[in-house]
């Protein structure tokens, strides 16, 4: 069917073309005739008939026309090109005008009229202007779909058509203006269509960040040094583009941010840098030929040029070895010798430095790729701090089972004294101080310092991985809270990136502690007692609300005398020294003590609170001098011992905001009892240690430290003191019940 249509179209053109040409020729002859008729009004020779019949044979056309001009007085100018035309005709009874029209039609002539002058010359039909080929492109803006039917259409014309229809901006280099394009697509996504258009026509396509589509030639012939074709272009400047899927392929996605899509398979690093650098038009300085940098296999969909260089050179860098270089030197008092030098490698691996938009390439030991930079911490200290220094000089002493022993030190400030160490409770020494005060006894604090470092100030540098500080010389400036770093630029950038991740505000934890101590007592005391004293006793005491009454003999006799009226009962009288005591008392107590200290500390550091009382005991040292007649010397020293309320808390904030608390609470008091007059006083203590995890601003309740006491005692007459009711007349009883409870409430709040 398609073939029949093509044949029909061909036949139609073959028939229509001659007909159209004939029609144009008739129209031209009619125009000449009209001009001659108009001119014949002023020049009657055009309407004259030939004087005689003319029979010509092989006569030049130019000569024939000149003869007609002379005979009939017609101004005729003959073109020299008519000299080569000969005519063979027999004219009879024709006018000059008809003769001229006939000659123009027969020999393809034309007449230019200038006034009454006829200029006859060969007729040349006007060149047919070819119809401009329309670019067949359709665009659907609703779905961003495009259809194309291109057959050797010039690139410039196609792109203008696409821009007009779609509104997308397509940019290309000037040498691609007349590049023929071939492509047939139907309803394809615009981005996908542009990508396939570039691929099938040996073009490179990239899309910039601001939405421009950039096209360039995939294969460009090398040019000479002066731009003349055929010259030999230096190898490092020749662009060797490869199609997708080859071992060396890249696309420039954004020239502003230098974003790339790369796919390299065992490709020389020198070729990668030179080719991409040529397209990005970057300035480069090479201290050592890049041919020694080796090969690399790399694939990434979206990576910047700087990141690509870092990853390629990292792959050729030897790994940092060992950790035996982590022994920093001793520090001066002003901290001017603090620092750390990373593991030193041979320095022959390649690296780069970017400075003022110029890329410097060379080995790590070359000065052109090294730099010195100050890296300042914005949110934390260069010194990895230990626990508060106020707790490191000396510790308070209290408690019964708190780590630490009760040390009875004799003559701690003199010589020749003895030291007594009483670990009566089986406790072990637990002290993190660099020195012990002579009167240190019971320690309530325990914190871990960085004992593995000779200087706490170097702790932050020493915890960094070896790969981060490799080939770097790092010094510490405490006054500016900065690191002074010297080394290859790429290593410094890696160090800065890692430090930036660590440079975050250290959380501050506000710890609210509430100590509640409740003491409840109940005492009941009853009974009647009488006896004979040394001397007469007067009646005295209280009756209400507490009854504690002592009756003298006179009062008792009056009471006895009151019974004389009851028949024959005669009790008699008591002696003057007689007394009787009546007790009936009940007491209740409810005491509540509340303390609300607040502590703040950095994350991972211990906070301490201690409120205590100090008393002293005597340590006597007696020394004997001489052997024949020994003499004694006695020295008495007063040593301190503490009782206190101490709270020690160490918070640790995790990444999800939860807080781990290491809590140690101790409360101790002096009991007032001493085993000897000069012995240390007795201590009663309550303490607990716990590790818990809570959320921010959660309330933690720690309790259960209770002290209970029950006392039920009495005395009286045997047997009678056991009989109900009357036992109150023949006995004295005391019942006492007490209860003490300590509760600790802790509320941590994280502050950033």
TrEMBL record:
UniProt keyword list: Signal
For this chain's UniProt record, which GO biological process terms are given?
A: protein secretion
Q: Where are the stretches annotated Disordered?
A: 315-350
Ranges annotated as biased composition (Low complexity): 321-340
So which residues are the signal peptide here?
Answer: 1-21
Where does the Type II/III secretion system secretin-like domain lie?
Answer: 584-751
Q: Name one GO cellular component term.
A: type II protein secretion system complex
Specify one Pfam family.
Secretin
The answer, when asked if Signal is one of the entry's keywords, is yes
Q: Which InterPro entries match?
A: Bact_Secretion_Sys_Channel, GspD/PilQ, T2SS/T3SS_dom
Q: Which Gene3D superfamilies match?
A: 3.30.1370.130, 3.55.50.30
Give the family, as the similarity comment puts it.
Belongs to the bacterial secretin family.
Q: What is this protein called?
A: Type IV pilus assembly protein PilQ
Which organism's genome codes for this protein? Answer: Sinomicrobium oceani
Tell me the classification of the organism that encodes this protein. Answer: Bacteria, Pseudomonadati, Bacteroidota, Flavobacteriia, Flavobacteriales
